[in-house]
């Protein structure tokens, strides 16, 4: 722990953690320190980490049960991980702002992404702090949004004609759609660990706001989708070989910059399941007490 160092990358979001070798056993004290930095900075980065898929999986599993993606190919040695392999014959359709896997009842609390192969330049990832974006809204608008729920839809993020769906195959995609019907989540989510509120809608999976007419819903969602992109909420990470990003999926959105084709970019991702989103005003009794 003597060499453990956390350096903020912006005043709002992002920090670099140094003095950690994730290929070595991670003690409980070190795990706690990493988690505290993760909660404070929303996304933390580690550079020059030479880990195997099994070590990647096992580190992620220290934070909770892992989610297996229904469409992306798994890593053979550790099938709980999946592979993002983009090149000229498999271009990405991940270049939109999104929060991971909000199409399930208990969206991930975190994702851990490891750079396996990088293009000569480009391929950065950008994260936005949803708490900061929420706090920048007017109090009256925040109050209005706090009573709303939104529909999150797998089929919006992975349409039949999309690149990921085509790569997975028609049968696998149809099965995934059938197994993932639309779900409702609060527009404003109370973080289960910090008790802070943040926006919980994203362009990738949020289709509409329940109870509003489509034009009303579209107007509000489009405004929020644009709002979260303001530079003061963002950190942009330039990947280096064997770097890792570990982000709090409950309070961030991210965007994979698609500027590197025809070069290739390969990343492995572990996804840690979370709990059911809630807002403090409508939380079950035990959760409401924790949020206050």
Question: How would you portray this structure in words?
Answer:
39% of the residues are buried. This protein has a single domain (5-282), classed as Clavaminate synthase-like (Double-stranded beta-helix), CATH 3.60.130.10. It is globular and about 50 Å long. Residues 288-292 have low confidence and may be disordered. It is 26% helix and 27% strand. The protein contains nine helices and 16 strands. α1 (28-41) links the parallel β2 (15-18) and β3. One of its GO terms (biological process) is sulfur compound metabolic process.
Which features characterize this protein?
292 residues, alpha+beta, Double-stranded beta-helix, 8-stranded mixed beta sheet, 3-stranded antiparallel beta sheet, 9 helices, disordered C terminus, TauD/TfdA-like, oxidoreductase, metal-binding, dioxygenase, TauD-like_sf
**How many strands, which pairing sense, and closed or not: the largest β-sheet?**
8 strands, mixed
Class, according to the CATH hierarchy? Alpha Beta
Q: Write down how many β-strands occur, each being a DSSP E stretch of 2 or more residues.
A: 16
Q: How many individual helices?
A: 9
Structural class: alpha+beta
Strand order of the largest sheet: 1-2-3-14-6-16-5-4
Give the amount of beta strand, in percent. 25-35%
Q: What order do the SSEs take from the amino end to the carboxyl end, as H and E?
A: EEHEHEEEEHHEHHHEEEEHEEEEH
Q: How would you name the CATH homologous superfamily?
A: Clavaminate synthase-like
* Parts with pLDDT < 50 across at least 5 consecutive residues: 288-292
Anisotropy-based shape: globular
Straight-line N-to-C gap: 33 Å
CATH topology: Double-stranded beta-helix
Number of domains: 1
Spatial extent as radius of gyration: 19 Å
User: What proportion of the residues is helical, as a percent range?
Assistant: 25-40%
Query: Can you tell me the CATH architecture?
Result: 4-Layer Sandwich
Domain TauD/TfdA-like: 6-271
Family: Belongs to the TfdA dioxygenase family.
Keywords: Dioxygenase, Iron, Metal-binding, Oxidoreductase
Enzyme class: oxidoreductase
